UniProtKB/TrEMBL annotation:
Protein name per UniProt: FAD-dependent oxidoreductase
Domain of life the protein comes from: Bacteria
Domain Amine oxidase: start-end pairs: 367-564
Organism: Aromatoleum toluolicum
Gene3D superfamilies found in the cross-reference section: FAD/NAD(P)-binding domain
Length: 617
């Protein structure tokens, strides 16, 4: 580990020659107060108000929709959430599967947890953390130590350790660790400083900069700076695939600019927690219970496909009427199963076990209409495409036509279990990687992010940490892998997909035995980050005054990403509805999602996001 004194001698590399060592040594320690707490406390956000006589329909019970439902219910609105699946959660959904995992002798065992995929809560999710803390929904810890374990099939391995210097020097230490990334040549390290400084200078409040970065692929952006090399490409591909499951040849430069702003803040912003397992029981059901306890409803198996618009306002939405040839609905993804579509033991859409297919109830075939004063659309990409595509004539505005063309990305999530423990840990140690349940990969045929769901590690207080208590005392290894190029294997069966993943894993865990069980979640709801996609994203406020859009597919002038974005947009919509209703109480303070200090400002001094010759773009 480089000492602070040694680092200051090299500071010209990191800060681009802007911040001298003497100035750095004189910098005071920073105090970020609430932002360094697991759950920031914002007193003015703590509101529980009586009924105000106004109603809101939330279309979509994913994370954004449920958060908006909770915030609005707490502020006196009668909330109705409409969700097409059997449970809320969207990308955070979980369920239990008795057909998966090692045998359990206890007949009362409800089944091992399956979930959409493992999702972490980064430290810079300040708004999501504030929300969770305010309602008493706690997160689980992870292992202190390495931020980032990485391997490329051709180039080798590298890691970024968690900084341990006091603030603000911790940021400089983090930047130094990035510059010392093991796969980079001396020239690459110099170029990395140039690229990071340029990206971190992005002003998200400037629509011209946003449009410019949205209009160029990151690969071409690197080439325009004369900073492209295999090492630099692999470095940024790993971050792009970690968050967006896309290569830098297709991802926009905007994607990496937004990610960079978040990753060059305080290292505390890079610490990660996880949702307590299972999310359906620890977090999502309590959200639904909260809405109901405050006079609202959460209706499942209710897919909205119609809308009534009168005098420039939405007056009602209508649930899809299910025809007789539809025989079942998947409880996990909510999709309809027509007669003759059932094949094998899985949902033909998402891959859930056939036990999750549910017979259509008679009341679901009847026409259902939901009126309200305000409507919040919280649909994922495919849901939004379908809803808007069926109602463009009623909406009749370019805002809706652009949004209806938003693309989604398909990503498969494969889980396998193996007999025995220790394979993962020994492989990381041999690769000189830090102790972590996560490994990011590039250059492999099928896989990107990998997670050891059965990892058991000793913590500094002498206790044990485990991702899931289900496996802590079982002699099994459970590995989750993400397949960002799902289209390549979309016609393959689940076992063949698991076999392909297993072959990739064997490159760095050669002693891994044959897998004993497997499943594949097939999702097509991930946010697309290709060139030009940002221009299609709707703002929270639509041209129709009482119709708003939220979730990770909308555009908002804030440095939020992923699940933090679902929370920011839910709060944003809540504030707009409060204003429309003329209610002064209950307004929500929205926190910054990135805290950029003096070291970052020094790094970006004199930089511009524009390539040479494009400054007037």
């Amino acid at each position: 580990m480089t000492s602070r004194r040694e680092f200051f001698k090299k500071s010209g590399l990191i800060a681009g020659g802007v911040a001298a060592a003497s100035a750095l040594g004189a910098m005071p320690l920073s105090n970020r107060g609430e932002f360094d707490k697991p759950h920031p406390n914002v007193k003015e956000n703590q509101a529980t108000l009586p009924p105000n006589g106004k109603s809101v329909v939330v279309v979509g019970g994913g994370l954004a929709g449920m958060q908006a439902g909770v915030e609005l219910a707490a502020r006196g609105f009668k909330v109705t959430v409409l969700e097409k699946a059997a449970n809320p959660g969207g990308k955070l959904r979980s369920w239990r599967d008795k057909t998966w995992g090692p045998a359990d002798d206890d007949p009362s065992f409800p089944g091992y947890i399956r979930e959409h995929a493992v999702h972490g809560v980064w430290g810079y999710y300040h708004n999501l953390r504030e929300f969770l803390g305010r309602y008493g929904w706690q997160l689980a810890d992870t292992i202190d130590g390495t931020i980032y374990n990485y391997t490329d099939k051709t180039l080798g391995t590298a890691k970024i350790p968690m900084p341990n210097w006091p603030a603000p020097y911790d940021r400089l230490q983090l930047l130094h660790s990035m510059s010392e990334f093991g796969l980079l040549s001396a020239e690459d390290k110099k170029n990395l400083t140039t690229v990071v400084g340029k990206l971190a200078s992005y002003d998200y409040n400037d629509p011209k900069q946003t449009a410019y970065l949205d209009g160029i692929s990151f690969e071409n952006y690197l080439k325009g700076m004369n900073c492209y090399s295999p090492g630099i490409a692999a470095f940024f591909t790993s971050f792009c695939e970690l968050g967006y499951y896309e290569g830098i040849d297709k991802a926009s430069a905007l994607t990496l600019a937004r990610e960079t702003i978040l990753f060059v803040g305080s290292p505390n912003d890079l610490k990660m927690n996880f949702y307590r397992n299972p999310t359906a029981e620890s977090f999502l059901k309590p959200m639904a219970d909260y809405i109901r306890a405050h006079g609202g409803e959460v209706r499942y198996f209710t897919e909205v496909d119609g809308v009534d618009v009168s005098d420039g306002r939405v007056i009602a939405v209508k649930a899809l009427t299910i025809p007789r040839q539809v025989i079942k609905r998947c409880s996990v993804c909510g999709n309809l199963i027509f007669d003759g579509m059932e094949v094998g033991h899985e949902c033909p859409y998402c891959g859930a076990n056939a036990d999750m297919l549910r017979t259509i109830a008679e009341h679901e075939r009847a026409e259902r209409r939901f009126e309200a004063d305000y409507f919040v659309c919280a649909l994922d990409g495919p849901g939004l495409n379908s809803f808007l595509g069926k109602n463009l004539e009623a909406f009749n505005h370019d805002y809706f036509r652009r949004a209806s063309d938003i693309k989604s990305k398909s990503v498969y999530v494969c889980n396998m279990w193996f007999e025995g423990k220790g394979y993962w840990e020994k492989a990381l140690e041999k690769m000189n990687q830090g102790p972590s349940p996560v490994l990011v990969t590039t250059g492999y045929e099928n896989i990107s992010v990998m997670i050891n769901r059965s990892m058991r590690a000793r913590t500094t207080d002498g206790k044990h940490w485990a991702w899931s208590d289900e496996y802590i005392d079982k002699d099994v290894t459970v590995i989750e892998v993400h397949l960002p190029r799902a289209e390549k294997v979309s016609t393959a069966n689940s076992k063949d997909i698991a076999t392909l993943c297993y072959e990739d894993i064997k490159h760095f865990i050669p002693d891994l035995p044959e897998f004993k069980g497997w499943y594949v979640n097939r999702w097509n709801t991930y946010m697309n980050c290709e060139v030009g996609e940002e221009a299609k994203r709707p703002a929270v406020q639509s041209p129709i005054d009482n119709l708003l859009f939220i979730g990770d597919i909308v555009s908002v002038p804030h440095t939020c990403q992923w699940m933090e974005k679902t929370n920011v947009t839910a709060k944003w919509a809540t504030n707009l509805i409060l204003e429309k209703a003329g209610q002064k109480e209950g307004r929500i303070t929205i926190l910054p999602s990135a805290i950029l200090g003096l070291p970052t400002r020094a790094l970006t001094a004199g930089k511009s996001v524009y390539l040479a010759g494009d400054e007037q773009a």
